[in-house]
Predict the structure.
Amino acid sequence: MSNAAVLIIEDDSEIQELLSHSMSKEGWKLFQAKTGEDGLKVLKTKNVSCIILDIMLPGIDGLKVLRKIREIDQCKNIPVIMTTAKGEESDIITGLELGADDYVVKPYSTKVLIARIRAGLRRQEEKKSGTSAAVWQQGDLKLDAERHLVFYGDKQLDLYATEFALLKHFLSNPEIVFSRNQIINAIRGADYPVTDRSVDVQILGLRKKLGDAGDRIETIRSVGYRFRSQA
């Protein structure tokens, strides 16, 4: 991932400079744009591995830019992390449904943002190679997909099939915020007839079975859920 190229679409010069300084330590190649129009021009001429996209941009806003990004063939699967100063729920939900992979609310920690970028790049590499892990572990919590087993410390947990699928989805995508609809699509497929309320009930049951680890499934108010990585 040290040879990754990151495009930052952000009109704030101070934030651009801060991110440039922090990300240069990762060995990533950086492209910078202050407007959505300029960012789209970069994407049509450069190979980019990940995009940091501010929602509040001069000219066309970040959500419109995101729509246009997903219309570019070579950008359909590039990780996009939205940033927003407002933190408005409607913008966050719209962005996630349009294909954003994650979001952070300003002011944010550059360490957190870099961790999110790394996670997105890892998922991208797995997609390209056609491989995926069979075992995921976060602290004392371990899931073995091939054997369909879950352990919390030395204790084996008895999960229903949907609970197992939920946990697998969270463990394989730590720190990523998912709307309820995205969760349904991920574990059941598009247009599966499940209500938002049923997702909440399933996650409540999963949290109880996870015991002390259950609070690592965080509720993002009016948006969805995120699994917090082990520090």
About this structure: The helical segments are 13-24, 36-45, 62-71, 89-98, 110-129, 161-171, 180-188, 196-210.
